[in-house]
Amino acid sequence: MCKSIPTVDGAEIQRRLHELAQISVLPDRLWRPSYTPQEGQARRLLTSWFAQAGLSTRLDAAGNLLGRAGGAGQVTLIGSHMDTVKGAGAYDGTAGVLCGLAALQTLLAHFGPPRAPVELVAMVEEEGSRFPDASFWGSRSILGQADPALLSCRDEAEVTLAQAMADAGFDPARLPDARRTDLARYFEVHIEQGPVLEHRGIQLGVVDTITGLGTLAVEITGRANHAGTTPMDLRLDALQGAAGLVLRLPGLARRFQNATATAGSFQVFPGSANVIPGRVSILVDYRAPDPDDLARLGREIDQAAHSLEAEGYGVTTQLRMSLPPARLDRGLGALLEQCADELSCSSMHMISGAGHDCQLFAGQVPSALLFLPCRDGRSHCPEEYAAPEDLARGAQVLAAALYRLAWQET
Amino acid sequence: MCKSIPTVDGAEIQRRLHELAQISVLPDRLWRPSYTPQEGQARRLLTSWFAQAGLSTRLDAAGNLLGRAGGAGQVTLIGSHMDTVKGAGAYDGTAGVLCGLAALQTLLAHFGPPRAPVELVAMVEEEGSRFPDASFWGSRSILGQADPALLSCRDEAEVTLAQAMADAGFDPARLPDARRTDLARYFEVHIEQGPVLEHRGIQLGVVDTITGLGTLAVEITGRANHAGTTPMDLRLDALQGAAGLVLRLPGLARRFQNATATAGSFQVFPGSANVIPGRVSILVDYRAPDPDDLARLGREIDQAAHSLEAEGYGVTTQLRMSLPPARLDRGLGALLEQCADELSCSSMHMISGAGHDCQLFAGQVPSALLFLPCRDGRSHCPEEYAAPEDLARGAQVLAAALYRLAWQET
After folding, report:
1. What is the value of pTM for the model shown?
2. Full set of structural domains in chain A with CATH
3. Is residue A3 helix, strand or coil?
4. With an 8 Å Cβ cutoff, are B215 and A129 in contact?
């Protein structure tokens, strides 16, 4: 049955991904944070593509772009996010949006409107690259889990999330309107962002579990002073304390299976060559697929930070974000696996080490996540790459599953 | 004889210092980098004070503010700098300018014009807080040592020094005009920026030697990648390498007497919480009063950085700035000491761990540097403070020395 669906054009998906990747707030590399004019530009481009495919488009109160096909009823939602990290590649997030679009475009052109409604979503602020506290802001809004307190969190330019939304034309007070209660299930296609599929030569990954995630903000305070006149023994150099903490992270993570700990955001103040650092601000990203391991790892990183107080440093820690591990839907996973088999695509079950909007949906509706191989496992960097044939396979398998759920059944 | 000079008003000096410190490019703390509108504002304020004191003012081609008293002849130059580091206090640099001003104001009011000309200078870009490669740009220009190649160095906003000068109304092509060949000697008053005078309860420091200084730019390159999907054992995290290097600096500095090594500027890229750092840029400031120690310390820091290549990191190092230790003039030092004695001020000989414009002048004319105590030895931070009576003592002793050299003798 799946074979009756026309072939999706992977080269077209890739061409559109690269066109989207031209839209950045930085001149030299890709960064498309949420609620910026550049995100608006990307959204308008996506809107035109959604419309060409025959979808009726709208923006929800959070700024998520939605494209719908079919009449009333419980909705099968597919999609991913349109924001990027700083210095991103062209595939993380948008590959899922455009694979979903290619699948729907093909199904609508060949079979007409579905019996049950299907919607494609391009979500805001999954990465938290502008508002680290507000990761998954788009999916949280759809699920009614967007904490209004986060509206007052600030970006590096001290702009609040509420102000950023307003500047982009979205009324923060209307955020609750974004909530959906009519969802039947959620599908997301995403690049693996790791080396496993490529390493094993397997074409698709059906994700069983998405690893749990915590973000701990650590601030270490020493004494800023003149770099030339303060004897080495009379210093309280915040960078010395922070460097010691950073070097402990790998050992802490290795105590737990498939766990990671990373200090990706690390800022030194005041930041002049001839001034001893008085303060260091760190965001520690830690992850583990087991909920108990995740909690213990977070506690141990917090203890490691506070142990610097014994050396005289001031230390504050704050858990900025915490996401439990998510078990995805076995039935939808089996369906994706079966469609892959019928299309003669090799597939494997796997754990996702990355957080995805899908893990938020998994808490409320049956959800599935399909991974595509990416070159060298590189992601969150300009070298990020997925081959056209792999993009096509993801879209094709998704199309087959959607066909069965929304065109054939009901 | 010194006692016949009226008493300088230290409270007035401090009031003016705090008025100047209000002029900053940052809303919340003091940063007054060179060739900014704020520096222009500070310069205009200083110009009005210079004029009130009876000095004839002019700007040289580098943007240094000069105020002159007396007729033709070899000039006794006194002064310091008007730029500040990021997050500075109100005393570093400007205290020397305003102590010099108070001394001249008193002498001119009481004794009229000097027999030999005296000039007061407020110099640009001593700190290199905007253009780290161009520290001492003002004094280098006066001494004909400003390297035109540095005109193409850039600030954090990618503005070149040449452009910054032009924006401030100074023609980089005319820089050689700033050179002076008519200087007889140079005096600088400065806060100690260290704890020695306060700790020993001594009122003034006569500096014999200014420590040598090097600034080594170190760039460490690893592999940026996704923080969640890259196993700990498959990472090349640039921050891990950089943290290891930073922790080695204190041990390297302690091998040499009165040496320091500081990583005050430490930037992590791309800088997102969920991205493994791919690159770290460090400016290592190292200092030693002995020329051989300085050279060896620089080599050992450079070797420590390159040793990271064995772990797979890319490492580049570049010596951005190098200043040999400077021996100051024994005769002028003895004069300051004698004036201090006659004024019943306690004084001691000392080494300066900080770089000062004075060390550039010392290479060409007899030069002297007089240190004032500062509270807790704090400097390059908002807590920086010198008491009115200490400011007054510095101005009084300087006035006594100037009286003997420019009013009494010739």
Report:
1. 0.76
2. 2-211+325-408 (3.40.630.10), 212-323 (3.30.70.360)
3. helix
4. no
